[in-house]
Amino acid sequence: MKNFFRVFSLFLVISVLLSCASNPYAPTNRMHKKQAKVLTKQLRQFPPEQTGNGITLPYGEDWVGTTNFNLRKPNFVVIHHTAQESVEQTLKTFTLPRTQVSAHYVIGKDGTIYNMLNDYYRGWHGGAGKWGNNTDLNSSSIGIELDNNGKEEFSKPQIESLIELLKVLKEKHKLPDANFIGHSDIAPSRKVDPNPNFPWEKLAGEGYGLWYDEAVAIPEIAGDSIISEIPTIVEEGIIPADESEIIAKTETTADFTMDVSVEIALRIIGYDTSDMESAIKAFKLHFIQKDINAVLSDEELKILDNLYKKYL
Ligand SMILES: [Zn+2]
Prior knowledge:
The protein is α/β, with parallel strands linked by helices. The protein has ten helices and seven strands. It has helices at residues 2-22, 26-44, 87-93, 137-140, 156-173, 183-186, 200-205, 262-269, 276-287, 298-310; strands spanning 51-52, 55-56, 76-81, 105-107, 113-115, 141-146, 180-182.
């Protein structure tokens, strides 16, 4: 019996060594572990540093640590498209220190999920962004990147895996329906992901994001796609891409009026309205998904009117 355990242990050690040797990401996984160790050390520091910014705070003589705490939890999910050519390219991008970009999860077109970062760590996927008064979405969100070149449809297995993942995350972190948003929502003047093919309505139907009532929906017009107008903008730090804006039209046709201004309605939903043109385009990219210009028609205003009340 003793010999069996020796042989078994040896087999286990060899298996682990072989699997490490065959994993092309073994060197960057070592960097990942090293970084996690540095952060763990920061968390374990007790008593904490006494000074900061040159100010000495009047701390008590004895350090008293509470016995009741756990880790902070993420409260949002931010969904992206990678605007890259393959999932391998994205995995490579997120393991190159010079790119300074990452996400907690990457989902391939075949539905494979790559969990690149623990939910409790701060990923670098949002960049400068704002949602409501939250100005540090990287600190409060989980980033999910979908392998997509920026213009194509999202595959069925990819969306199925995304929904399974969202189910797990929603339950684990007790995330409210409204807090499943897109990168373009938090960074309207910089980002256009996920692209207008993203099934926000389907997701909202399952409890991931909000949607407007059927009664105000605009009837479908066959063949009305604007996907060719959407520029490709890759994530921060990656090779510069075409930064051209979504085409803006200037005419206005709206007669419908809301109880609040368009700006206030957009702000209630969460949009940064410091650049109104970008805020309207971002709203339309998420909730209208066609004719993504800075003009709101009567039908679109009715949708905005219906939606902002759901966020109150
Ligand atoms: Zn993004």
